[in-house]
């Protein structure tokens, strides 16, 4: 049955309108495009945006902004092309340390608040300040390690940097030592890392310009070479400062210089050795040292840390070599 022309025309118009709405910007299509463009803009601003549920640990941010003055953290090496996977893996391993630090600080905040409330007479201003202090850690630290660590990619292959948060109580030297100690345990159930190679803790970074190395020596070395004291001349009963002298240590210095051809390795060693000599009767021993001073120069910044004699036995803090040594032991036993 054929329809009159007057009825065919409206049907054609409806069909054309439907086609236009699906292909050339109808209301539904326009809204979908707006949502898509908005999501793309958000991803452009934050390529590591987490889509996890609220309250879950947020992922640390990758950063190419480089290393800055007063940074604290860890240099980490990996195979070429695996830098980001290595950083993400190290971030996962570090999460437990920062979760413990966060829990400890929140606990201390609650204890301080309780002590303040227990006092019989507390002025109003101090009470308000205590309330604000109790809120600050939650606002500044978020729900986990995501807002604390920065994963820094560098302009040299195989080397990256994990920046610790400002005012963090987590010690990079102790963290690296514990990671390597755990990996070296005989009953460890397989390797905990696939991409991480060497870990180098950095207690503090300073600009190499304007005597940055001298400043580092004055800030780092006294904590390791002048605090421990022992009586002079075998006087074990004396407790006065005039009869005490810094405990002598055997030490070594190991500098690493990357992307900087203006700083001489021998100058770095002499500068650090002279500063240690000013702190007591310490002697250089390249193999049987008690303490090893690690100096890392990258571009225009220099970092320093002091590690113990376990550095060599723990494969120079190389997780890949520690895991490989376990596999070798297993093959020998078989």
Automatic annotation (TrEMBL):
Chain intervals with Polar residues compositional bias: 17-27, 224-243
Region (Disordered): 1-67, 224-245
A single MF term (Gene Ontology): RNA binding
InterPro entries xrefs: THUMP_dom (IPR004114), THUMPD1-like (IPR040183)
Domain of life (superkingdom): Eukaryota
Basic residues biased stretches: 32-42
Pfam families listed in its UniProt record: THUMP
Record-linked SUPFAM superfamilies: THUMP domain-like (SSF143437)
GO biological process terms, semicolon-separated: tRNA modification
Record keywords: RNA-binding
Domain THUMP: 184-308
Residue ranges with Basic and acidic residues bias: 1-16
Keyword RNA-binding: yes
Name of the featured protein: THUMP domain-containing protein
């Amino acid at each position: 049955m054929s329809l009159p022309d007057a009825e065919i025309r409206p049907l054609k118009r409806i069909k054309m309108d439907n086609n236009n709405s699906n292909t050339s910007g109808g209301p539904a299509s326009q809204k979908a495009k707006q949502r898509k463009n908005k999501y793309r803009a958000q991803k452009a601003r934050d390529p590591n945006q987490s889509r996890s549920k609220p309250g879950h640990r947020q992922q640390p941010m990758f950063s190419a902004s480089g290393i800055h003055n007063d940074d604290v953290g860890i240099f980490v090496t990996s195979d070429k092309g695996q830098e980001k996977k290595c950083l993400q893996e190290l971030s996962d391993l570090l999460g437990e340390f920062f979760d413990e630090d966060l829990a400890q600080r929140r606990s201390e905040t609650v204890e301080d608040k309780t002590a303040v409330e227990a006092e019989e007479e507390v002025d109003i201003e101090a009470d308000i300040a205590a309330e604000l202090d109790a809120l600050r850690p939650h606002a500044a630290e978020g729900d986990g390690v995501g807002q604390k660590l920065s994963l820094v990619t560098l302009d040299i292959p195989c080397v990256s940097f994990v920046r610790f948060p400002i005012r963090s109580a987590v010690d990079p030297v102790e963290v690296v030592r514990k990671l390597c100690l755990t990996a070296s345990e005989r009953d460890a159930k397989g390797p905990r890392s696939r991409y991480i190679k060497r870990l180098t803790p950095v207690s503090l970074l300073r600009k190499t310009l304007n005597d940055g190395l001298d400043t580092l020596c004055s800030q780092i070395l006294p904590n390791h070479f002048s605090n421990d004291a022992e009586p002079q001349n075998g006087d074990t009963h004396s407790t006065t400062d005039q009869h005490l002298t810094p405990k002598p240590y055997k030490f070594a210095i190991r500098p690493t210089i990357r992307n900087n051809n203006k700083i001489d390795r021998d100058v770095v060693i002499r500068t650090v050795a002279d500063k240690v000599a000013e702190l007591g009767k310490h002697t250089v021993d390249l193999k049987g040292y008690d303490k090893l001073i690690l100096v890392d120069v990258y571009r225009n910044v220099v970092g320093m840390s002091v590690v113990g004699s376990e550095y060599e036995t723990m494969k120079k803090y190389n997780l890949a070599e520690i895991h490989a040594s376990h596999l070798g032991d297993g093959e020998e036993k078989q």
